[in-house]
Amino acid sequence: MTMIDRRNLLAGSAALLAATTARAADAPTDTLKAAAASKGRRFGSAFAWSPPGADAGSFANPAYAALLKRDCDVLVPENQMKWQAIRPAADRFDFSRFDPMVEWATTNGFALRGHTLLWAYSKWFPAWLNNHDFGQRPAVEAARILDQHIDTVTKRYGRKIESYDVVNEAVDPDTGGLRETSLSRAMGGTAVVLDHAFRTARAAAPHAELVYNDYMSWEDGNAKHRAGVLTLLEEFRRRGTPVDALGVQSHIGLFKPTTDAGAVAKRLEPEWRAFLDRVTGMGYRLVITEFDVRDKGLPATIAPRDKGVADFARAYLNIMLSYPQLGDVLAWGMSDRYSWLRGFEPRTDGVIARGCPYDVDFRAKPLRGAMLAALAGGVQRAVVAR
Description:
disordered N terminus; alpha/beta
């Protein structure tokens, strides 16, 4: 970003001054993207596809599109780039939903992240891939399928996508080991698959940031998951695997009853900082890829719940944003109306989770204010060459 100070403005032409003044007058100064940009970062969100006029977290919904345009610089598909969505069969791709998303985003000036080139988890493989016959030379056939997928996606979108979650969730949180899949069994091990995916992605998209993305988090019970991710990152470095950054999903949560979210955050901070120090100490950058707050341990009453969510989020983001290695910050949706938490992890009391910056009626909540303050107060992002 080029900063224009008063001296430069006075030295410039009258036309430049008028144009700069007009842009400044039109640009909101209290947006999440402006707060992030003030420290050299970008703020963004997941978004989705839906038919025109549908009530979904999609650019086709004018109210949701307005939130994206107001607060975001970068977007990521929530589901429409995953294998289940774009590869219905071994010999067939379907980009009919993702293409319009890319077109709308680029036409409206957004940068794009890609999620994901390989979700390394059998549960989320398409059925055909779990049941595929890899033939007499399984390693060769599995590598061909993986190469074809990565090459097809990256070459179709070229420089329109600047950053990829190349591999998603390869570590088993219960054991800290790597998950086995049909691809790993065919290719002789999960590490072989992951290295192959990153090397193929580097060759196919040399311009792009390549990210390993996972949901290890700072709450209690995640120690094995964090340890497994650290081991994987160490092994990537040892093997020379071209991984640029760790994607920290950041679906943070308060799961046990509490009235003091700040105290919970303070207790969790030391171990979380130790984890981040290990990651950055290996030379990795950080990306917050899927931020929201799971509020199951907070009361149903909106005011104290919103305060707890905001306090917890502010403490977490203050830690993350104290690392100059942190780049993009993306929410996993902007409105509670469309949050994945409503279906995937509903509250037992039946009230709607309030983990996004805007509520079901697109009204800003205290969480948005906490995010704005944290982004504005973070350290300047370091520009690190790959």
